[in-house]
Amino acid sequence: MQWFGYAGKLLYVNLSNGNYEVKELAPEQAKKYLGGKGLAASILYDRLQPGQDPLGPENLLVFATGPLTATLAPTSSRMIVATKSPLTGLWLDSNAGGFLGREIKFAGYDALIVEGKSLEPVYILIEDDRVELRPANNLWGKDTFETHQTLKELHGPDYRVAAIGQAGERMDKLAAIISEARAFGRGGAGAVMGSKNLKAIVVRGTRGINIADYQKFVDYVKEAFNEVAIHPDTGGGRNHYGTSVIYSFINEAGVHPVENFRKGKFTGTDTINEEVLRSKYYKKDKACSSCPIACSKLAKVDEGKYQGKFTEGPEYEDVWSFGAQCGNTDLGAVIYAEYLCDAYGLDATSVGNVVGFAMECFEQGALTEEEIGYPLRFGDTEAMIKTVEAICQGQGIGKLLAQGVRYASEQIGKGSEKWAMHVKGMELPAYDPRGAFGMGLAYATSDRGGCHLRSWPIAQEVLAANRMDPFSVEFKAEFIKSEQDLIAVIDSLGLCLFATFALSLKQIVGMLSALTGIQEFNSGEKLMVIGERIYNLTRLFNLREGMAPASDTLPERLLTEQLAEGPAAGQVVPLDIMLKEYYTIRHWDEAGRPLPAKLEELGL
Amino acid sequence: MLTVNEKLCTGCRICEQVCSMEHHREFNAGLSRIKIASKWPEEEKVILCRQCKAQSCIKACPQGALTFNGFVVLDNDRCDSCGKCLEACPFGFNLKDKENKPLFCDTCQGNYQCVNWCPSKAIRKGGE
């Protein structure tokens, strides 16, 4: 079959026996699941037996691109890694931009599926048709920066690399996969790579991607570029500040969690905000493949204790996790902490969350100075950095904290479960849902646990000019459901979520159908059905893995403890009402199981 | 003549995509006449024929396959892939196709699509 947009091939690599196989992408599979997240969900659901150890050889790692990946569509850099998460024991898809997706596509594959486990450390080398396992003993123990450098020196600067650091090698549950400056951060995909003795993948592709209707595609892409350029976010604030553009807005709205979600408004913002980041640390704009937004900002510390340390970002989530979450007001320390997480290969959002958790444990007496080795109080920047270093190096208390807040709180006990701010085992990010109720429902029903990237009602509840009432439950279930379905589509196409700020679904449909020529993609309604199908499939995956119905919830603190001050003072999240309505709208039963009629309608 | 400001380049490689799309109607960075060379984590280097006045490439060609007509024009039949033109380039231009023939910018018939599409204005037409 002649493919447009798609590469049309899937590469299966088995690390246990060193064999690989190239299979045709089935047209029905593409039409039913698009690509990216949807394609990976269908592969994992079919091939992974339920109940397997996420860190056992049976688990799969699926690196999947979408049909738009590696084209000229604005922000079409994205790809996902999907696996069964060692952090949650459930579905995980972790998304990143950069250039890895483009290179995999240019090498001629829509997805790379890694199975089994190598006896010795290896990396996978892909050069178009040529696929090899190479020994990685000399790379084992190296951080991600050194690993990239060594592999690029060996193979050439045009080769794209994704690697784990020492955290992935140790199979820490918070381990990420790092590709140049981008991270497949959340959920512990790096630990799965480590469990397979897979240090890196190295890719070089020289093939082309075809366009079905050239002139139409060019016209739609031109229109899309124009929309992105004139939109006040994508063409303005985000382009200037990066993802930290929202920092002051979020804090002023009282939904910026402080000291492990005990407060909702940070007072240390004289030295930590988007303006300081821009004026004091910003060096240069960086962009992912085909992205005119360039939200990635190279930041570097010029003087002081953290001199010379750099990162692309720091992203809003990490300015929070190593800022307000730990009570730290030094942006230089945030940059250093993010640098460490990139180097050792860790999820910086979760790492900051778990350090804040440990601080609360210390202040409440559940962790002692003896156990930690030093006092660990909120606002103590040096102690925060020490703890991040301990997590990175797998030393002392860091060893425990690197397994995430749920596991750490279970081990520590003493009532610390109450301070573990996670959903389904994944650490919560940088928004307090007591000041934005929809965000609470989004956290509770995200298919990979406590994450803001399956629906982000913050845009409507906090940032928009015509805001939805953040303290109302009205329309929230409906909104979250439809945004989750839409984002499942975006994550399957290879576009970035930020594109949806500027582009309508109609414009995305225009680019996609002109590119692929596939009839089944020619309307927004059809794509939304695919999105709903994908979101139901990841739900089925989670239920099959034994997810308890009661786990669609929030940490007790957000349901019972009122915030004392700020715009959200006196509020708790009325989750039950929204959740009930959400299940009804999704046609799921009261235990959150999709009803047979819905599954039949979706062809599942 | 094209001018490049590498400090402005974000490394998005939209120019590469546009160039291969314009000339070959497909996305294929290997066919692009412009390349953003990665020196990650350092700054990108923009590689393209700048249509400079020195024209060392034309003088260096033993086959007489190169002429100048606002840009460097390659006579495909005369070119024997010797690579002398690229060796002579003072800007380090070195892009070749799969037959090792040089990939000079042809200005997209004066439309300069890479200039039109570059979102950070890192590539400009001389004098603009």
From TrEMBL, chain A:
Keyword presence, Transit peptide: no
KW Metal-binding (keyword) present: yes
SMART domains membership: AFOR_N
Keywords tagged on the record: 4Fe-4S, Iron, Iron-sulfur, Metal-binding, Oxidoreductase
GO molecular function terms listed in the Swiss-Prot or TrEMBL record: 4 iron, 4 sulfur cluster binding; electron transfer activity; metal ion binding; oxidoreductase activity, acting on the aldehyde or oxo group of donors, iron-sulfur protein as acceptor
Cofactor(s) annotated in UniProt: [4Fe-4S] cluster; tungstopterin
Aldehyde ferredoxin oxidoreductase N-terminal domain residues: 6-207
Parts of the chain that traverse the membrane: none
Family: Belongs to the AOR/FOR family.
Protein name: Aldehyde:ferredoxin oxidoreductase
Organism: Desulforamulus putei DSM 12395
From TrEMBL, chain B:
Span of domain 4Fe-4S ferredoxin-type: 1-30, 70-98
CDD domains: DMSOR_beta_like
InterPro entries linked: 4Fe4S_Fe-S-bd (IPR017896), 4Fe4S_Fe_S_CS (IPR017900), RnfB_subfamily (IPR050294)
GO molecular function: 4 iron, 4 sulfur cluster binding; metal ion binding
Pfam families given in the database record: Fer4_4, Fer4_7
PANTHER family recorded: DIMETHYLSULFOXIDE REDUCTASE CHAIN B (PTHR42859:SF10), OXIDOREDUCTASE (PTHR42859)
Record carries keyword Cell membrane: no
Protein's UniProt name: Fe-S-cluster-containing hydrogenase component 2
Record's keyword terms, sorted: 4Fe-4S, Electron transport, Iron, Iron-sulfur, Metal-binding, Transport
Keyword Transport: yes
